Amino acid sequence: MAFQPPYSPSLFRKRDNASGASVVALDNKIEQAMDLVKNHLMYAVREEVEILKEQIRELVEKNSQLERENTLLKTLASPEQLEKFQSRLSPEEPAPKTPEAPEAPGGSAV
């Protein structure tokens, strides 16, 4: 006697079709969610890029200001002051720690 399954093969075909439709619907929802995440990340990255560009602009401006100030101070300083300053920056010889000279009346220590 041949084996006869206790079910109808057409029953599984209907389930396969329904299952296939739900898989497609699930794939569509996953794709929509991924698009939403991608859009959110792109927005966040663009926003961060704008913030960083502004910070770069501010730093470039501050750097230019400090370079102008440095040039002005160099032109106003005496050769002795510049030499003393350069010796403190020299990595070969660390400058000895000496107390600062008090400010002269009516003058300033530069």
The CA-CA distance between the termini, in Å, is 113 Å
Mean pLDDT: 80
- Supply the helix-strand structural class: mainly alpha
> The biggest beta sheet, please?
none
**Global geometry:** rod-shaped
Q: For the CA atoms, what is the radius of gyration?
A: 38 Å
Number of helices: 2
**Are there runs of 5+ residues with pLDDT below 50, and where?**
101-105
Total E-strand runs: 0
> In percent terms, what proportion of residues is strand?
under 5%
Please identify the oligomeric state: single chain
Order of helices and strands: HH
Percent of residues in helices: over 70%
Describe the protein.
The chain has 110 residues and is mostly helical. 72% of the residues lie in helices and 0% in strands. The chain is built from two helices and no strands. The chain has helices at 9-76, 79-89. The longest helix is centred in the middle third of the chain and has 68 residues, at 9-76. It is rod-shaped. The protein starts with 8 loop residues before the first helix and ends in a 21-residue tail after the last helix. The relative contact order is 0.04. Residues 101-105 have low confidence and may be disordered. Residues 81-95 have a biased composition (Basic and acidic residues). One of its GO terms (cellular component) is cytoplasm.
Primary descriptors:
110 residues; mainly alpha; 0% strand; cytoplasm; TSC22/BUN_CS; phosphoprotein; TSC22 domain family protein 3; TSC22/Bun
